[in-house]
User: Fold this.
Amino acid sequence: MHGMQEVSGSIPLTSTNSEVAVR
Assistant:
């Protein structure tokens, strides 16, 4: 979840895919 800002809609590293999906 710490990569939510790093990913920011680039590539889901962990379970950030859900976070990016919201954004």
In short: The radius of gyration is 7 Å.
